[in-house]
Fold each of these.
Amino acid sequence: MADIIKVEHLSYVYNPGLPTAVTALDDVSFTVEEGDFVGIIGATGSGKSTLITHMNGLNKPTSGKIYIDGRDLWADPEKIRDFRFLTGLVFQYPEYQLFEETCYKDIAFGPKNMGLDEAEVDRRVHEAADFVGLDPALLERSPFELSGGQKRRVAVAGVMAMKPRILVLDEPAAGLDPEGRDDILSEVKEYHKKTCTTVLLVSHSMEDIAKYANRVLVMSNRKIAMYDTVEKVFARAPELLELGLSVPQVTKIFLKLREMGVDVPADVYTIPYAVKTLLEAKRRRDAGESLVLPRSAAQKGGAV
Amino acid sequence: MLRDITIGQHFPGNSLVHRFDPRLKLVLTIAYIVLLFAASNPLGLTLSILFLAVMYKVAKIPVKMIGKSLKPILPIVLFTAVLNLFFVSGEGDPLVHFWFLSIYAEGVRYAVLMAVRVMALIAGTSLLTYTTSPIVLTDAIEQLLKPLGKLHFPVHELAMMMSIALRFIPTLIEETDKIMNAQKARGAQLDTGKMTDRVKALVPVLIPLFISAFRRADELAMAMECRCYRGGTGRTRLKVLRCEKQDYIDLAVCIACFAVILASRLVFPNY
């Protein structure tokens, strides 16, 4: 499919020309295909959040170009608002942006700004509430009466209701309990599957990225360190660890097993696949095959 | 846009001005303001500004910072200047006469002096906040106002409120920035459109901002209570302000400068 996001040599400097100037992004280039689910990982301060605020034109690149759906984002600064509806951005802790008297009105804020008619707004609000699993009875309640998890849902629905082609989420699960995490992320995944929306998900949890994304973009020190499919990125565990990042726990176990000399694959990153791999290994052992990895020459010569 | 606000911002350093006892610095700043109005002749004002320039030099504060602190009050300066220009009537013939407005030479003189004076006033007080951290400054205010405590004036509470307020300015600015971005992402138009539209567009920013300010206040109150805060009585401090020899020398130099400026007004009242 076609590239929906194309970023070319993007650089961004905070406070340019002042002694406090800080480079936040340094010559970043990548493309995202329509319908992809991209996980973005990186240590704190690596430029993830700055990168995503460029996707809908909240920050203007110091140099470089961004194309969304083939159109240059900054070709006409007057038209930048159109891109705000094309790329829906959910910030960290989005529940702090709620302001209306009822959840319904808050979710309707985005669609109304798009200039849609009442009936369409109404349809979208209910659709979005349904996607995030928000009880329709709650729509007429004040968002400030709800629990943290429900507030978060209202805020995410507020962006989904704009029906963006690209949905960008900055740690949508931060601060939620484990059940809330799984719920909100599976809802996003469900939304992604049903609507074919391209999703960019910033997360610190490698498990979440492994479970939901199909590609991973690794940011390190204001640059892109890796950008590949989930399998290939998590197979490079040592490099990830060096960047101050981690790999899913199950991947760590499989890497340790390999280190101990057991013949198992290294690119295991989800529990179901791990179970399958282990059963396969057991079958091979039961059939009399050896599971011991051939030792390398260096190891053979050692006085172990 | 919001990042440009500098009033009350500290510019760390280790100059003579920075190390000067905050209580004396505060008193001298007030004295300087009085001086700006007492030494009202052009010569006195020039000398006062010269004094301030030297102080900025000693404190190693970049000139750019003065401009930054003056920018927000420019409308007020212009307003006072214009008022003075039109409403001060002098002797002799007016320079310009138009409908019911007339401009006298005296008016022009007052307008210029007033504008310069207000700017010097802001630059002078900015020097105080640039060179003194808010915490130290409120400490100084608390100590200076202590005698009022005898009259049951809540000195400590006032100082605590001030330091909390100052502490939260940058936090709230950052918060506003975040909320504005979030609402812009949902298509809010904050910087375009008619005046009435813009004011209406602020509602989605102000409501979350107030809510989070109250939430923060609640959390802070809880945290203070958890650490057994119960007001000023019997509270001791980690850093006790003490005047040393250097402070007295600085004070003497400043008083001498002020005296010279004041004397210049009395000796040459017409310059």
Note: Chain A touches chain B through 22 residues (CB under 8 Å).
Amino acid sequence: MLDLLKEPVLAVQEFVILAGRAFRNIFRKPHYTDDIILQMDTIGVGSLVVVALVGLFSGIVMALQMSRALSQYGEVEKTGTLVAITLARELGPVLTAIMMAGRNSSGIASELGSMKVTEQIDAMRALGTDPIQKLVTPRLVATCFMLPLLTIIADFVGLFGGWVIAVLRLHLGSRLYWNSAWQALEWNDVAQGGLIKPLVFAVVVSLIGCFYGLRTTGGTQGVGRSTTQAMVAATIIIFITDAMITEFFVSQGAS
Amino acid sequence: MAETGAPSVLRFENVTVSFDGEAVLTDVSFEAFEGESRVILGAAGSGKTVLLKTALGLIRPDSGRVLVFGSDLGKMREAQLFDIRSRIGMLFQESALFDSLNIEENVAYPLRNQKAIRCPASEVLGRVEQALDFVELGGTLEKFPSELSGGMRRRAAIARAVVTGPPLVLYDSPSAGLDPITAHTIMALLIKERDMAQTTTLLVTYRYQDGNLMANFRYNSKQGRLEPARQSDGPLPRTTFMVLREGRLVFEGDQDRLEATADDYISKFCKQRE
């Protein structure tokens, strides 16, 4: 029984050490600014289209589904309210993070895993560079910058998708839709869904990818395994942390 | 090998390394002195690569001590190890060139990143070109590793290993997977580096002929080629052979003793001197 627990406990310990060193390195020299910018481009700009598409269709689907439910109570004009709340609090941050997990956690794991099995990580250490400083911290910083921005973009594009349905399908006025959406949002929603959740998810997406990448063994087969594990683990942890953050805000009476 | 009066460069004292409870190096002890060449033979999985990585401080031993240039690696933090590593060149088995960097950036990497080297930015390109000329890869600065053949990648990796002029160079199976002509070219470069820079060399290989070349040939800088050491002036290169078997050091001595051994495992690596 103890042997069964040993491996997951050791993995958690390794992850915590990796996370600690990655955060500590933010304040230590050298700072690999070029790598941060490169990662912001790869992780952030590279995910823009897919995140926008997910946001758009989430907004469209939410407007369609909510309007159907609201029509039973004669409250179709509140479609904007529901689309805004669901997108800002849950769908925007969670779906964006899941897309990032699928695209970036796996990408990071496969890139670092390939470097690991071809001894490039060892070579980096041999040539005077801390791989965590050079590879992990830039990805962490870049994801923490880009995921909140992408979430906000996904929220707005989603609201736009909802507006398209509201105007073309439900024949609501634009002003009514945007007013109800705007008034539904509180600062708390912006803090929770636009900043806190995306930041936590960014840490999960980047560090899980790096963690699985850096512990890759077993050649190209091992790289494939790490890639899948990173994506699955990041997705599950995103849902778990989402539930925890939501529970925290609900218990504070905030939402 | 008996001490020659030359300073100790690398010393293993009863080093044991294990992964997941399984020993990959067991109670290994030896000492390499300045200017000496050590040829480490062993079958796949015998612990050769682990030995080199332990010497570089990439792997920490479970027990025993590793002293490099007199410093105990076990007492050093990772940041302190960088200074020691700046005095060691390492050729990894699969070259380990950085895929995302071109050859110039790869070779310049230790000059730009090893703090102890302190190479002015204005001198980096010159030293990179010099190192690439040394391995006869002068025209490949802009190329990426994926654009080079296996032998060329190995040569570029040698250039990266020696660009800082390290006094100790570790080569992990430099000729593995190469055709005989390319393998000979790579070995000639290693001997050239050893003789021109007077480096201490650790060569890990499973090919006895690599060790034979290392022990019996030297580089003639005037003629620009290898020649048998016995035909040239000066003493023979100081070469010690070591044989690893399942993580244990089962032989340490010169080539004559190696070839005279009756041990089945050890004699499998030996071919008669040409």
Note: The CA atoms of residues 40 and 204 of chain B lie 5 Å apart.
